[in-house]
Amino acid sequence: MAVEATSAREGLSDLTRGLLRAVELLDWQGIVIPELDLLGDRVCIVASLYEPEHERRQAAGLHALADPWLLELDEGPSSERQARWRASPVHLVGVLVWRRTWRSALTTASGFAAFGARAVVLPREHARNRRLSLEAAVCGVGVIARDALELQLLQPPTPVPATQARRSLVHRLIEERVYERLLASLVSVG
Questions:
Q1: How far apart, in whole angstroms, are the C-alpha atoms of residue 17 and residue 25?
Q2: DSSP readout, 118-142?
Q3: Predicted model pTM
Q4: Could you report the per-residue pLDDT of 149-189, keeping only the tens digit for each?
Q5: DSSP conformational letter for 146
Q6: What is the mean pLDDT of the chain?
Q7: How many CA atoms lie within 13 A of 120 on its CB side?
Q8: What residues have CB less than 8 Å from 96, skipping those under 6 apart?
C-alpha cells in the first residue's frame, strides 16, 4: 500500500505533496482537493460526501449547483430559503492554507470558520512565533511548521461542530463548488 501511495504521488507538484502530508499530520479523513480557488484564495479542502443528498441528486440527474441562479431555483424562494435549506451534498472536514506569512494565512483561514476545522502551513521561522501561537489558539486555527517539505504539527486545530444554523447562499455556493470538484475527482479516479 505504501508503494502505491508513493508511486501515485510521483507526478504531483511539491506543493500538492506537501498539502497531502499536512492532511495526514492533521489526521483529517475525507477526499482531498489540494488546490481550489474559493473566496478569492487558493486553499486545500478535505471533504466527505453526505450520501443521502448525493444519492438524491444522482437519482434526479442533478450535479453540483455552483451557479447561484440554479441553486436558488433548487432551494426555493428567498423568503422561505433560510428556513429550509436542503442538506449540503458535502461536509467540509477542514480547510488547509499554505502561505508565507501568518497574517495572510490567518486572513484566508478565517474566511472558512463556518465550515470546519482550519489549519495553516507556514515557514518554521514564522510558525514558531509565540504571539502567533497565542493568536492561533484563540482563533482555533491549527499551525504546521515547514522546512522545505518537512512538516511538523505545532498546534492542532480546534474541532468545529457541524451545524447548518444560519446558512446563507454564499455558504451553499462554497459547498457546491467543493461538491463540483469532488465529483470531478471521483470521475477521474473511477
A1: 12
A2: EEEEEEHHHHT-HHHHHHHHHHTEE
A3: 0.82
A4: 689 999 999 987 655 556 677 888 899 999 999 998 875 44
A5: E
A6: 83
A7: 30
A8: 19, 22, 23, 26, 43, 44, 45, 46, 118, 119, 120, 121
pLDDT tens for 11-52 read: 778 888 999 999 999 999 999 999 999 888 999 999 999 999
d(CA 5, CA 28): 17
Handedness of CA 87, 89, 92, 96 (dihedral sign): negative
Q: Which amino acid is at 109?
A: A
Strand partners, 122: 145
Phi first, then psi: what are they for 76, rounded to 5°? 105, 180
Count of residues in the chain = 190
For the CA atoms of 32, 68, 85, 184, the dihedral, rounded to the nearest 10 degrees, stands at -30
The set of cell numbers assigned to 77 is 424562494
Could you tell me the three cell numbers for 76? 426555493
